[in-house]
């Protein structure tokens, strides 16, 4: 997948473009992407995902700082889906002040060489969000592209959007989160050294540090699946600050892998959270923590039927 992160580009062939924030790449986003890929396969044109790259300096007050998927996670998902080109267009005041028709002309027609533009029915763009699906339809003949407007994806009668996914993550409702995303919510990172307490009490763990821009569910213990070199391992994951054995308040994701015995330090793993087991707690002793971990692991084995 080709990744473009600047304004100074011009593609050299026609594309099928879908546009949006694509935070989380939930079911609604996937509907757009799959449609773009379908047209791409039929026409032989390259598929492209267009989104904005927003920095803290250029972020508007209504824009979220924490993401459901980090930029790296989003790229990995899009590449796995088969997208040919990802454009993360730098967002600034100049872009924010661009009139809708100018955006269609200067960016989508001239830079992206868009022959098809795939968007949701409620998509808005341009200065003040004044551009919409009707703007696309009104300018398609003049600018030489075909608009493809899709209805919003719904679940249980409600339209799926990133805001809803965020609500469910904040509540720890991982089953609902994973339905809305159409894949398990996950945290990816490189395994770092912890305090090694887990190994001394018979529960070795893999520790990763979530990025500051990653939205996290409530601190606590989760039944989880961890991907290591393409292989899945069941286990339990604690998100939080490990109050029983640590006082530095650094947030990490600590996972005990059932049936894994190897050295993971320095390797990248992906931890998928499947079910919220209990809140994070401070125990009166390490022995009390150990006894609870035994119960947590037994719960995970029962949950996953292993």
Descriptive notes:
The protein has 9 helices and 14 strands. With 306 residues, it is α/β, with parallel strands linked by helices. The protein folds into 2 domains: 2-159, Rossmann fold (3-Layer(aba) Sandwich); 184-304, Elongation Factor Tu (Ef-tu), domain 3 (Beta Barrel). The strands form 3 sheets. Strands 1-4-3-2-5-6 form a 6-stranded parallel β-sheet, sandwiched between helices. A 6-stranded antiparallel β-sheet has the order 9-14-11-12-13-10. The longest helix has 19 residues, at 286-304.
Largest beta sheet, briefly?
6 strands, parallel
Low-confidence stretches: none
Q: Percent range for helical residues?
A: 25-40%
- Give the number of DSSP strands: 14
Beta-strand percent range: 25-35%
Going by helix content, strand content and strand pairing, the class is alpha/beta
The CATH H-level homologous superfamily of the largest domain: HUPs
Round the mean pLDDT to the nearest integer and report it: 92
Just give the CATH class of the largest domain.
Answer: Alpha Beta
Q: How many separate structural domains?
A: 2
Q: Measure the end-to-end span.
A: 37 Å
For this structure, the quaternary state is single chain
Using only C-alpha atoms, the radius of gyration works out to 22 Å
Principal-axis shape equals: elongated
Instruction: Give the CATH architecture of the largest domain.
Output: 3-Layer(aba) Sandwich
In the sheet with the most strands, the strands line up as: 1-4-3-2-5-6
CATH topology of the largest domain: Rossmann fold
Helix segment tally = 9
Q: List the helices and strands in order.
A: EEHEHEHHEHEEEHHEHEEEEEH
